[in-house]
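OP here, attaching both records as promised.
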Amino acid sequence: YNPRRTWYITEIKMSAHMVCKTDELAVGEKKLVEAGGESVLVFRVPEGFFATQAKCPHIMAPLKKGKMVDACIVQCPFHRARFDVRTGACVEWANWPPGLVNVLNAFRGEKNLKTYNVTVENGQVSVEV
């Protein structure tokens, strides 16, 4: 026991930030927003609105420049990692360019995207950060 080493558990409060209106995004579109000091990517897919971190966890490429390859799957523009925007799950890890990607992947293993809770109310989309 060391009385000088005292740990305090603090409650982390998330707060909702209005980031866009529902009519700003059509199904299949995404929008880069700032919420609570964090860069967040908001997606509108057939099931609704979802939000993830704005950068690919592989080498921090901007997912805003990525493309939707399926209704709910975004592909990183640099090394083709693919993520389900509803859950953040990595559905295919970085695979481009052949050869070089093996070196990069040795340092950056497969990771999921961070996701954020989204609420839609009265035509406004809010993200909890």
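Record two, same layout:
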Amino acid sequence: GFIYNVRTQQSTPLLNDMPVALYDCCVVAKNNYVYVIGGSSRSGIVNTVYRLCFETFEWTTMAPMGIARCVFAAALKDEYIYVFGGINGGRLSSTERYCIYNNTWEDLGDMPKGPRCYHCAISTTGNEIYIVGGCGTRFVDVFDTGPSLTWKTQTYLCDMPEERDYAAAVVVKEKYLVVIGGFDEDDAATA
């Protein structure tokens, strides 16, 4: 891996390689740490979590997820990392949450409109995480990370007009959910 400094526009290789080469994983950053979660290696789909310290550039193996998964979605909310769906032999509906401070995983049950893969998860400024699209779906779901840890049905948030997988999404001005790119139901690339 490498680190790119956006201010100096210089890239430098990481001092230490990640313990295992991965793809189809998710990455989340919190404070001075980068968490690389799940994905696939040459030996198959993994449940591992590796943490890179940005002070020492050393890797640490953290507690593994309950279920190995790749092509899933992850989002950071406060001191928790949430993972949604993915693939492990078949498509997954499961949701898990990782506590950064306790290094523990917790099963949060299944997504109501799962299974999902090749989708995205977007944290909002409140307690919500939006789960957007995925293979064969145009659904937009809302997970409430507050004390109830429940899926919400929002009257103000409707499904996308078409299926999107491999898309990117972001919330802008706490008002707009912008979904860009990906593939539609005909596997045509979209703008």
